[in-house]
Amino acid sequence: MSGRLELRRGVVVSAEPLTVEVDGEARTAWADTVLLGEMREGDEVVVNVAALDQGLGSGGFDVVHVNLTRGLEGGGGAGGEHVIKLNYTSLQHPVAPVERSRRAAAASIPVLVLPLHGHLAPAAWAAGQARPGIRAGFVQTAGGALPGSLSRDVAGLRERGLLCGHITAGAAYGGEHEALSTVGALDAAAAASLGWEAILVGPGPGIIGSETNLGHGGLAALDSAHAALSLGMPTLLSPRLSSGDPRERHRGLSHHTRTVLDLLLAPVDIAVPDIDDSVIDALEGAGDGKHRLRIAPVDLDAYAASGLPARTMGRSLDEDPLFFSAPLAAGRLLAE
After folding, report:
1. Which of 138, 151, 220, 293 meets the CB 3.0–4.6 Å disulfide criterion with 143?
2. Rounded to whole angstroms, how far apart are CA atoms 177 and 167?
């Protein structure tokens, strides 16, 4: 039956990196230890094998559903939270929402809308280069992976001080703060109590797609942009561009971004790297020309030397410089 969970029993044969033996085969796995607890060698677990069996790219690993050896002991009970995320699933758990009880006046804090998770590191780095010490935080939405703890990029940026906080919004969970909606997350991020000066908002890793115009995780950018605009926040969009993607629909200006620009109900600013004039023509024609283009220089060599992630879908920065140029321009503009 379509949609049924593909669960298998397995045994943890390595805790780091996590590897589970299923039917005699050692398979790469991931476990949300915040929800499920520690995984140890020899633990009997139940894993969801759907992604690995289907050969998915960034999502190609088994996901631990429950640890049968020690996971049934419980986590010590919930606090005083009465709000549930992932409700009516077997992973429902209580959270303390970060939303403010009373929304303040429209904030002027700028928002950068990201089309996919691969833009987060270069955008945050560029913002930090343009304004050292800027307090920029990340609001993670649906559209890609939902667990906040899954992103190595977020962890690395937090360690370097290039992100000052992490809110998971809507179905996404596991950030430092939880919000029940994207608009609520953006409003909370603008509160003085968090101390953010700029917001990057976008999906977690592993964007989803169905090779259709509207059936893809990139449309989360549409909701994020509308949420920011509704709060009166200056809204900048980082376009998905590529000079090396073998798929025609993503070459130059990706159909993901073009669709978002066409569907937006109000104009936004679009970050444009100054390395490819053909991109300007494509962006000027999107959205009936209602959006504002903002061109910024980029330093690809400096980013390549930063040690931050510089690969996308198996392609290096040298193989797809345009992909990385867009968030580098966007991050610079966010910090201005």
Report:
1. 220
2. 5
What pLDDT digit, counting tens, does each position of 218-249 carry? 999 999 999 999 999 999 999 999 888 888 78
Q: Look-up: residue for tokens 């066409």? A: 262
Predicted TM-score (pTM) above 0.85: yes
**Structure token pair of residue 249:** 């629909």
Spatial distance between the Cα atoms of 302 and 130, rounded to a whole number of angstroms: 13
Are 217 and 142 within 8 A, CB to CB? Answer: yes
Does the residue 92 lie in any domain? no
Residue 120: pLDDT over 90: yes
The DSSP secondary structure of 167-206, one letter per residue, reads: EEETT-B-SSEEESSHHHHHHHHTSTTTT-SEEEEEE-SS
* pLDDT 10s digits, 145-164: 999 999 999 999 999 999 99
Count of structural domains within the chain: 2
- Spacing of C-alpha 64 from chain mean position: 21
Closest C-alpha among 118, 145, 152 to residue 245: 118
The answer as to whether 90 is a domain residue is no
